[in-house]
Amino acid sequence: MKQYIGRFAPTPSGPLHFGSLIAALGSYLAARSASGQWLLRIDDLDASRIVPVAESTIYTQLEQHGLHWDERPYKQSEHLDEYAHAIDLLKKTDAVFYCRCTKAQLKRQRDLPTEEPVYIGTCRNLALDSQESALRMRVPDQLLTFNDQVLGSLRAQLATDIGDFVIQRKDGIIGYQLACAIDENAMGITDVVRGADLISSTFRQIKLMDALGLSVPAYAHLPLKLDENGRKLSKQNHAEPLKANHASRNISEALKFLHQRLPEDPRAPVEELLDQAISRWSLDSVRKASHPFSDR
Question: How far apart are CA 171 and CA 168, in angstroms?
């Protein structure tokens, strides 16, 4: 039986907030309760989003909350050759195509009155070259299903629910979907525990892994913490950064949000809170919410 290897993969675009803590804590507890490894990946491919002090701030915040990772952090910016090799393989099988749709064209598509607009295929059959072009994965008309450890069976008709998606931007930056698919395998990840806002990305990444002959990890998608306006907590929405002097309270509140058994003393040191939480961790207790991709 394979050793459990989980991960947390923040973008260094700002400090961690409570929503980040939920994802970090859920993945940490799942790994430690299985006597597994918990790795840290820094998703730093898009230099325009990176805040210079954010990476060191994230390390400090995790340590202040007792979330200590194994091994040296894996940084995407150090693995560009692996992504380029994967793109070459996909090109050889005609699994990708170049796209020159402008931001204005894509914005008009996003304004269509559908729940989650997909790329309408404007450039799909034009055989464009790489000049001023993004590279998209060619998605077949295929039903893809996977079993989520929190939400149960999820399914998507790739052509209509997901659509052709970008794996390399016009500016040459590797797309999140490709990098993540490659990274999970390079790091030996067996289980991915992350927020439910990434379910559609999971379908994309599974498709990429299948196309590249890579192993697919198990997935568990956690519920999202929303603000008073019904938006998920995020750096873009100016969510309040985690504070060191509230670390025990933050851990206790995150456990409560994840419907885990609460500690006897929520003000105890974080190490004590985490020891209790590891012994009591249950994915089955995590709140299950309906989702557009639920099996139907």
Answer: 8
Write down the pTM of the prediction.
0.93
Under the phi-then-psi rule, with left for phi > 0, alpha for psi from -120 to 50, and beta for the rest, what region is 139?
A: beta
pLDDT single digits (tens) 4-31: 999 999 999 999 999 999 999 999 999 9
Burial 217-244 (b: 16+ CB within 10 A, else e): bbbbbbbbbeeeeeebbbbeeebeebee
How far apart CA 220 and CA 94 sit, in angstroms, is: 31
Q: Are 56 and 280 in contact (CB under 8 A)?
A: no
Other C-beta atoms closer than 10 Å to the C-beta of 65 total: 24
**For residue 247, is pLDDT > 60?**
yes
Neighbours of 259 (CB within 10 A): 14
Model pLDDT, residue 226: 79
Residue the block writes with tokens 């659509």: 163
